[in-house]
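From the methods appendix. Each design record in this collection lists the tokenized structure first, followed by the designed amino acid sequence. Records were kept in a plain field format so they could be parsed without special tools. The example shown here is representative of the layout used throughout.

RECORD:
FOLD TOKENS (465 positions):
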């Protein structure tokens, strides 16, 4: 066994949280090693989650846009686009990301151990690499950043070739005509848009009464309407009873008595932390029933010297937030001030996309905050008319008396980019957070960001008539 001592930090997992922790720690002068059990760096975010699903979305959006463009319509038939061909292009994006991420470790001289990390205590990590060699890393601190995986109930046969989760769907070698998606959370809704965009019939089964009910109600309703308009059947407030698969397809039996039949089933009902088989018990740690670890405000577990960041700690389970958690955690280990991840924008890559930051109307109403609404509908924006992306809206929620911006909610083209303009103003201290910024600032024309000026004027007219 190769024994190497003197590490200041060993990071287990090279996704956004682990990478950020490693890079920040080495910039602070710590001696850092990272452990990754996949064949290449990047974690689940790069190989199975964020990057491939968003690459698929972009490709499908391109197909949809050709159908809207009178000059290009008919060049591509969405129903003739093969799933396998989309995956090939997605792999190219993944490979590019792996190269970028690998260069980070080389440039910052972070030592990479390829293999599965196992805790032998709070100061030792055992790694068996892919050649069968054993490494024992003695360290002052450990950061667990192993991410998450799709949750698998025991009564569903995920080994069946027609039953997929959000990881294995990337290995599907056929293009279904009809697919059932069980679970209408963020991932399920995103894939519902991808498949309907290809002209594939989709049954989206939601265990709740409303689609993405944590969103502003108006935005959630807009997504539901748009999905149905694209041919998706949304089945609300349904729970599965049994899944029966055969060589020809899958039957999903619901507790309500309904039976849905399709070529394939995509299971998108929750995720579990990747904490199995890594020696947590030896270190004195016990994850919850979803494999997640509890941490304090320093991102430290109940065991001194062991920290956890990213999906493995639960909320908000976003790549963007995981990156900041890793960076803040490493800075705290190096002795800097402890910082928390706050004001995390929601980014949902449906077609069209959804993004929001701050509070929604329901929350403000319950808190009895005197707010008003400013709206800009994309169909009225010159830029949206030029691009043909007329579906969507920007909503600004602001305080009626102080004009402080309280929430930004966007549905439509470039929503995930647009939201950051409002986020920047919301984070300004005191009176600098004001709706009047959007009224007094000149925006490029025609742009999607101009929606802020339109929405702000709409809102101020409501209270200054």
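DESIGN:
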């Amino acid at each position: 066994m190769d024994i190497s001592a003197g590490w200041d930090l060993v990071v287990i997992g090279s996704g956004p949280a682990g990478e950020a922790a490693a890079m920040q720690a080495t910039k602070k002068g710590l001696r850092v090693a990272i452990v990754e059990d996949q064949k290449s760096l990047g974690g689940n975010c790069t190989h199975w989650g964020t990057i491939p699903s968003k690459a698929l979305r972009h490709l499908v959006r391109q197909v949809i846009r050709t159908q809207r463009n009178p000059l290009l319509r008919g060049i591509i038939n969405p129903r003739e686009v093969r799933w396998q061909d989309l995956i090939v292009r997605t792999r190219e994006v993944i490979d590019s990301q792996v190269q970028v991420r690998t260069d980070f470790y080389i440039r910052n001289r972070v030592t990479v151990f390829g293999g599965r990390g196992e805790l032998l205590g709070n100061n030792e990590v055992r790694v068996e690499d892919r050649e069968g060699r054993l490494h024992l890393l003695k360290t002052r601190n450990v950061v667990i950043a192993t991410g998450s995986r799709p949750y698998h109930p025991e009564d569903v046969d995920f080994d069946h070739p027609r039953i997929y989760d959000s990881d294995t769907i990337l290995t599907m070698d056929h293009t279904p005509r009809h697919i059932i998606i069980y679970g209408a959370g963020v991932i399920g809704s995103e894939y519902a848009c991808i498949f309907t965009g290809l002209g594939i019939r989709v049954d989206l089964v939601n265990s709740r009464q409303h689609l993405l009910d944590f969103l502003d109600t108006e935005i959630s309703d807009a997504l539901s309407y748009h999905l149905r308009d694209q041919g998706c059947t949304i089945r609300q407030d349904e729970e599965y009873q049994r899944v029966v698969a055969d060589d020809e397809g899958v039957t999903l039996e619901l507790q309500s008595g309904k039976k849905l039949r399709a070529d394939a089933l995509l299971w998108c009902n929750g995720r579990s932390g990747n904490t199995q088989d890594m020696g947590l018990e030896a270190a004195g740690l016990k994850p919850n029933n979803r494999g997640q670890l509890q941490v304090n405000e320093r991102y430290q577990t109940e065991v001194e010297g062991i920290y956890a960041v990213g999906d493995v700690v639960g909320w908000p389970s976003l790549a963007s937030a995981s990156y900041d958690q890793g960076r803040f955690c490493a800075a705290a280990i190096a002795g800097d001030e402890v910082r928390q991840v706050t004001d995390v924008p929601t980014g949902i890559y449906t077609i069209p996309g959804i993004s929001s930051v701050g509070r929604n109307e329901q929350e403000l109403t319950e808190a009895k905050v005197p707010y008003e609404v400013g709206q800009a509908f994309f169909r009225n924006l010159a830029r949206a008319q030029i691009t043909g992306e007329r579906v969507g809206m920007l909503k600004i929620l602001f305080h009626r008396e102080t004009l402080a911006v309280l929430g930004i909610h966007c549905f439509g083209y470039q929503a995930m980019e647009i939201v950051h303009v409002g986020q920047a103003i919301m984070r300004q201290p005191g009176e600098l957070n004001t709706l009047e910024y959007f009224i007094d600032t000149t925006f490029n024309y025609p742009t999607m960001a101009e929606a802020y000026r339109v929405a702000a004027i709409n809102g101020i007219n409501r209270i200054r008539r």
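APPENDIX NOTE: The longest strand covers residues 2-12.
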